[in-house]
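Tip: read the tokens left to right.
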């Protein structure tokens, strides 16, 4: 399958451009809808969980994106707290119990286009590559 490349001026080079174009074309006037993707979900075998929104070139999220992230973060925190951190899920008829430690919905900003040639901020604060790795591995 060949991936379509869309113009960089639309800021779609790192977004699921097909989904963006499909929703804009099929859903019509989207002034009542705020659509965004979640760039990362990290979970380990010990129940640690974190969501990530990744922005390149020090891009700042749009207000609706910040609002969506804050809403989802608060809903997850409240739900996990209400469940006492213990979540039961059923997959293919099999029930599993997981103890969850939610580490939040983090905004990770890269100074450039690539992880290999960028400096980083997490939630607006500079972070070294080494500390970012520790954060993403839940080692802090």
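Filled-in amino acids:
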């Amino acid at each position: 399958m060949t991936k379509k490349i869309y113009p960089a001026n639309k800021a779609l080079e790192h977004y699921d451009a097909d989904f963006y174009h499909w929703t804009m074309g099929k859903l019509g006037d989207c002034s009542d809808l705020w659509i965004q993707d979640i760039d990362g979900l990290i979970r380990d075998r010990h129940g640690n969980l974190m969501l990530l929104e990744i922005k390149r070139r020090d891009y700042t999220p749009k207000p609706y994106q910040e609002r969506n992230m804050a809403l989802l973060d608060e809903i997850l925190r409240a739900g996990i707290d209400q469940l006492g951190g213990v979540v039961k899920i059923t997959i293919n008829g099999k029930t599993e119990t997981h103890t969850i430690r939610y580490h939040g919905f983090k905004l990770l900003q890269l100074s450039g286009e690539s992880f290999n040639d960028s400096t980083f901020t997490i939630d607006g604060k500079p972070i070294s590559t080494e500390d970012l790795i520790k954060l993403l591995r839940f080692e802090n």
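Helices lie at 17-26, 63-82, 129-136. The beta strands are 40-43, 48-55, 86-91, 94-99, 101-110, 120-122, 125-127.
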